[in-house]
Amino acid sequence: MSLPSVDEIRALHEKYAPTAEAFDVVHTHCEIVWSVAEHLVARSSLRVDLELVRAGCLLHDIGVYSLITVDGHVDRDNYIRHGILGHEILRGEGYPEHLCRICSCHTGVGITKHDVVAQGLPLPPCDYVAESTEERLVMYADKFHSKTTPPKFLSAAAYARYVRRFGDEKVDAFDALRAEFGEPDVAALASQYGHALEQ
Fold first, then answer.
1. What value, to the nearest 5°, has the Cα angle with vertex 190 and ends 186 and 194?
2. I need a labelling partner for 6 at 20 to 30 A (CA). Which of 27, 34, 60, 146 fits?
3. What is the average pLDDT value for the chain, to the nearest integer?
4. Where do the structural domains in the chain lie, given as residue ranges?
5. Rounded distance, CA 195 to CA 144, Å?
């Protein structure tokens, strides 16, 4: 099966979203991540499959819907599973593995088998690490916007502070992504969407 169109992606969000509010939060976040990725590609000499990046950005959080009840409750204890749940959804819809992997490999700056075992994470022991340039780009673009209530943008410095709690090696991994892709103009995007910006 080929990659889905923007209209097909929106239909998938509508199919799996348990509420209109969940759709609005998740779909808007995914559109923002695509805007960040587009910005990064436009400012660089990156050679990427833009159709895959677009679909990956717009679908990377499709698994979040599986963790939201119809009354809006979010299963925070299992939230880290949203990537593999998204992978399962897209596989079930018949989409190619290189798109499905973007879901399961975008969380944080990569979750290793060691992370899963050492932290007792509710995931099958495996490496969930972005490998291709497209996977790394979607993962990185995702770091600059949060679906918190209210949603907000994060500067690179803000995300680096956040990820430090998971260990210096995670900061190093984020710094490597910064060196590879550069930094987006999150201030302009925050203004465009009317979201706060954490510096």
1. 175
2. 146
3. 96
4. 6-141
5. 12
